Amino acid sequence: MRKVIFAFAMMLCAFSALAADNPAPAPAPRISIFSTTTDWSALTGLPLRQFRGDFKWSNSDVGRGMVLYYLDAFPCYGEADSVRIWLGPRGQSEGILRLVCVHAPTEVSFTWRNATRDADQSESTGLLKCPVTGDYDFTIDISKCTFGPDWKEYK
Q1: What pLDDT does residue 43 have?
Q2: Mean pLDDT of the chain
Q3: Which of 112, 100, 96 is nearest to 145 (CA)?
Q4: What are phi and psi of 60, to 5 degrees?
Q5: Which strands, in side-by-side order, build the sheet including 146-150?
Q6: Using one digit for the tens of pLDDT, what is the confidence trace for 22-50?
Q7: For residues 99 and 23, what is the distance between their CA atoms, to the nearest angstrom?
Q8: Are the beta carbons of 51 and 138 closer than 8 angstroms?
């Protein structure tokens, strides 16, 4: 019986030595995507209101088409069914931009890519920042927007 206990103890020592040489990998940090935007009204004491964005563009601004996805940012977040917009040649468009805000935005940001109307959702190109004119029904002139670097250039 002593031999069995001794062998078992030696095996435990060997395993603990191996564990010390090969520590377990650190757990990957948990990433949670929870928006704080729904609390903006409570945090600021300002009521939430709905705003609607219309677009102005020319064919040279969008080429064969441009897909925009609104990026939530204070003072607004996008309503889930209205954050994808397609702008096409000859004034064609699909989708509407509806935002819920604590006050009228002065600038909005999108992720963008050139694509035809029915293109599948795919990786976008980069950031597009656009000034806004108006109030509850505001206008975004694509020719006045600023293209940021492509996503691959962000660090």
Answers
A1: 82
A2: 83
A3: 112
A4: -70, -25
A5: 93-94, 84-87, 66-71, 107-114, 126-131, 146-150
A6: 556 667 666 655 555 457 788 888 899 99
A7: 49
A8: yes
Distance CA 133, CA 109 (A): 14
In order of 50, 82, 103, 137, the CA distances from 45 in angstroms are: 16, 25, 11, 23
Residue 130 token pair = 């656009």
Asked whether the CA dihedral 79, 106, 70, 41 is positive or negative, the reply is negative
Quickly count: other Cβ atoms within 10 Å of residue 144's Cβ. Answer: 14
Neighbour order of strands in the sheet with 76-78: 76-78, 97-101, 49-56, 137-141, 133-134
Of 52, 56, 144, 134, which is closest to residue 97 (Cα–Cα)? 52
Q: How far apart are CA 31 and CA 21, in angstroms?
A: 29
Residue 75: cis peptide before it, omega within 30 degrees of 0? yes
Q: For residue 111, what pLDDT band results from cuts at 50, 70 and 90?
A: very high
Which residue has 């976008």 as its token pair?
Answer: 124
Query: What confidence tens digit (pLDDT) does each residue in 69-99 have?
Result: 999 988 898 998 899 999 999 899 999 999 9
